[in-house]
Amino acid sequence: MPWYKKLHWQIIIGLVLGLIWGLVSTQAGLNRFTSDFIRPFGTIFVNLLQLIAIPLVLASLVVGVTKLNDITKLSRMGGKTIGIYLVTTMIAITIGLISVNLIKPGNALPEETRMELLESYQDNVTDRQAAAEQTMQRGPLEPIVNIVPQNVISSMSSNANMLQVVFIAILLGIALVQIDPGKSAQLVSFFDAFNDVIIKIVDYIMLMAPIGVFALLAAVIIDLAGDDLGRAFELLRALGWYSIAVLLGLLVHMHLVYFMLFKIFSTMKLRNFLRGIRPAILLGFSTSSSAATLPVTMERVEKNLGVEEEVSSFVLPVGATINMDGTSLYQAVAAVFIAQAVGMDLSIAQQLTIVLTATLASIGAAGVPGAGIIMLVIVLNAVQVPVEGIALILGVDRILDMCRTAVNITGDAAVAVAVASTEGKLADGRFDD
């Protein structure tokens, strides 16, 4: 197959062309045209991915549970999944703290720039703080309570309720295993066929991927730059060291932690893993949504990495909801950066508080764009850093959100490989591009 027909190259070409068009649009005064006639194709692409996320999780997880035929395997797999997710999240936060303490980006921010940023984004901070206050008012067991839905239809009405869908699917799968096989066979066959149909729809949607990512990145550029491209470059330069601290931490985590994860739990090489999962990573980067990318992540993990369906259909939906390695690392860097910028020195105890708070906050962060900022408010309140300091980072948050979402998705897939390997459910992937 020629290189230009491979999906990941088509996505990369779409990203590059989207970047170029966004820059041209800003300079030529075409932002209104881009917003009215190009952005909608990105929105349609993301909507299509979100459309099939819940049906895919429901069908594949029911089929996966019925194939296990042993409830103890399911509980063992669940314990491994959540345990590895929590450990990698805490390591990510620690890496973020090391990065920001070594680089000290807050000390390099000029006073004039700091005051300008605080004034420019103050209105956005108020909205995020109100959303975070609603989250903090929940009881300590509220996340567990929210897993059990009151209504099947309402739980499937939003991708933010993915854990509820996982609960329903597991409950249905267990019940099918427990009843007479003669009665359950038809329903299991239905879900199996339904799952194949959804996978085929994923293939159709991915035909639109290059156009979708082109439109998404063009929209990001015009949102960032507006009508003044020079101001965007000034903003990036002012927050350059902060961005470097985040990106450095993400790169170290992706290559070091996942390399060690495969060394301990699997024989898969990190290079082969990244090669097999790259279309999902690129889509996560362009959409900034773990939930929207979930159908592609599941398909690539099963097809390219050899993870059996009964593992991927459980590990990945749970990961898209509670495993936020990239987001947690970013929260650690952002909290310390804001503290440095306002002249606060965080003690070791306060930085350990960031580790604990960011880990717990990541469990409640929805896999949608911008959720990390809301969780950051909780982290800042925990260490008495002024919440208003969020205004300092909002200017570059959209770009960093794309990067940390790519790491979130990579982490979900890496844990799926590790769990599958320990369960003897990891076959040889074909790495079909």
From TrEMBL:
What's a BP term from Gene Ontology annotated to this protein? dicarboxylic acid transport
Provide an example Pfam family for this protein: SDF
Q: Where are the transmembrane segments?
A: 7-24, 44-63, 84-103, 162-180, 201-222, 242-265, 355-380
Q: State a single Gene Ontology molecular function.
A: symporter activity
Location in the cell: Cell membrane
| UniProt keyword list | Cell membrane, Glycoprotein, Membrane, Symport, Transmembrane, Transmembrane helix, Transport
How does the entry describe its membrane topology? Answer: Multi-pass membrane protein
Broad class of where this protein is predominantly found: membrane
Could you tell me the superkingdom of the organism this chain comes from? Answer: Bacteria
GO annotation, cellular component aspect: plasma membrane
The family database entries (PANTHER family) matched by this protein are listed as: AMINO ACID TRANSPORTER, SODIUM/DICARBOXYLATE SYMPORTER-RELATED
By what name is this protein known? Answer: Na+/H+-dicarboxylate symporter
Q: Which organism is it from?
A: Cyclonatronum proteinivorum
